[in-house]
Amino acid sequence: MWLAAAAATLLVAGLGLALFWIPEVEGDPAFPIFYLHVPVALTAYACFGWAAWKALRLLWTREGSYDLESYTAVHMGVIFAILTLVTGSIWAKYTWGQWWVWSSRQLVLFLVLFLFYSAYFMLRYSVEPGPRRANMAAVYALFGIVLLPVSFLAIRLAEDVIHPPPVVVTREGPQITDELMLVFVVCLAGMLALAAALYTNELAGKRLDGRLRELRESLQ
Amino acid sequence: MTYFADVVTLARKDLLLELRSRDTVPAMVLFVIAALVVFSFSVPADVEERASYGLLWIGLVFTALLGLTRAFAAEREQRVLDGLVLAPCDRSAIWLGKGIAVVAFLLLAEAVALPAFHLFFEPVGWELVAGVLLADVGLASVGALLAAMAAASRTRELLLPLLFLPLVIPVVVGGVGASLAEDPGRYLAFLGLYDAVFAILSWATFEYVVTE
Prior knowledge:
The complex is a heterodimer. Chain A is an all-alpha fold. Chain A has helices at 2-21, 34-61, 65-96, 105-125, 131-161, 178-219. In chain A, helix 4 runs antiparallel to helix 5 (131-161). By secondary structure, chain B is mostly helical. Chain B has one domain (2-210). Classes of the chains: A mainly alpha, B mainly alpha. Chain A binds chain B through residues 59, 112, 115-116, 118-119, 122-123, 126-128, 130-132, 135-136, 138-140, 142-143, 146-147, 150-151, 153-155, 157-158, 160-162, and chain B through 54, 145, 149, 152-155, 158-159, 162-163, 165-167, 169-170, 173-174, 176-177, 180-181, 186-187, 190, 193-194, 197-198, 201, 205, 208-209, 211-212.
């Protein structure tokens, strides 16, 4: 509960500051979306990292409860990845006049991650519940966190021959001043608190769901 | 030493099965040729020169996918995998044996596909061959693990492409880059890096995929 309150306070404060306190960036009226887009993207990374950590713990200790935690973290990560794609797309439309640009590394990386982690759900839904499914999902979540830097490297390499960066596209933000940094940190903290609140809430719901199912089975 | 003896036995079993049944490799060969012919009708003539390398890589990735959907078919149908897991050998040997067999199948398919590409489209240079060889290792190591996962699922053949394709995007980048760029070294090094990272990860985690 206090996490949700903290998230609401920080996000309202951060976005309010971004919109009304920070002076408008010349030539980029859509720049305030930076304070939404980048924290959302970093939060998605954090969720995927958390999922991989829980997956590693599962494989290490063979403790079944980590499975649900890893699953919930991937769930949250995918939600934030979709938000990253949406906000990034809106920003691209404002700045470059197109909804999608293959030359934006961040967007392409999130598209790959989104595809990868969507398959995670397909994997979970098509394997019988049990320790083996938990193991498989954990292995897949670990692959995801390794794929992340490898894909980033691949996207950078692809720029030379496959998706050459257009001349106009330079997302040279303004010089990061202390004020910008402060607002950015507030927004990032708010977004992380939001993810943590959603995560604990969803985890409690999923645990309750599991317990309810056990009860129902024992009654039958 | 017994570890490698196990690996050799397991790989030999797959190759022997293929030699007797001839299920997978002829299908892969026919598929890759058919794919190349379809591709030749799908690109405009003025961009064909460079685009054809990209199409070759798509063809190779999908050919690998075709082979991988059958990779654990025998184990699944006859419940051999349960027996292999119970056998007194390291479980990662199952992955390595399967990976070696998949590489062998891929090499056979490519031994036809690359000359066909040379004949139909563009010349095949050393950098393309090197890229294909490096990519085979990555495709087989990731693929053998994911095929084992998919074999345990209800949707099987449907699931494998969903798991496999996002993971092999870097292989396509490395392969296409190696065939097109002026300095293929960087891309070949990247493919080598991919192979090393994912082979170690798959080798270390395979045991968890087949056990409870």
